[in-house]
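# nightly structure sweep
# worker-07 picked up a monomer target from the shared queue
# config: single-sequence mode, recycle default, output format = structure tokens
# input follows
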Amino acid sequence: MILLGINLKFVYNTVSMRFFKFFLFLSIVGWFSSCKVFRSNLMLNTNKEYTYDKIVDSLSKQDYKIDENDILNVQIFSNDGFKIVDLAGTNQLQRFFELDYVVGRDDSCKLPLVGKVKLAGLNIKEATKHLEQLYSIYYVKPFVYLTIKNKRVIVFPGNGGAARVLNLTNNNTTVIEVLALSGGIAEDGKAYKVKLIRNQDNEKPKVYLMDLSKIEGIAVGNTVVMANDIIYVEPRYRLAKTLVSELTPIISLISSTVLLYTLVSRAK
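# output follows
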């Protein structure tokens, strides 16, 4: 009877300890989840009730407007650029100047002869026409070729440490092309939850949600990106992996402490 009583007591203590571990496990999971410890690296999060902006065809037709800190490459030719064609193979182009200029905080950049010119807020076509009008005082039928050298997009492909900043050399680069240039969507990325975040004119950022997991998503995937756009692929949450790596050491430490306390209490 004594031996049986000891065994029953041992079983009771074992079951109690397992129940305690299970209860402790659930408590820690709930506490950590509420504190966002598990997903502390999640960026640009939107709640379930968030209203995304509607993707329309006009998104692919928007022109980028020159902004502060943009680096402009300005090339000016005379005679409506005739010499560009006439002497294309002789390296004798009559180019008056070609330099890079930075748009300052006052939305303007200082150019030869004409001085400070406000270009921020204009698209390439508008800025080109404006400069041609200014330089018509000094040159016969000036031809201006203007490009922005620091156009770029930021891509988060859905995996930590894999973000990239890509320079845009093509004015018609699409979301799919940008993702391809960055190496594609990561293994942990959600292809059905791709966010295009666009912030222009210091207004509230517009957020467009794209589902690229199906072939039907190619239509929205062909949306043309603009300078300073952010493409964010939401990463998949691996709960089991996170629990094992984050909670096991904590539970082991607490369990060991409780066990040690129990042994010490019995020894008294």
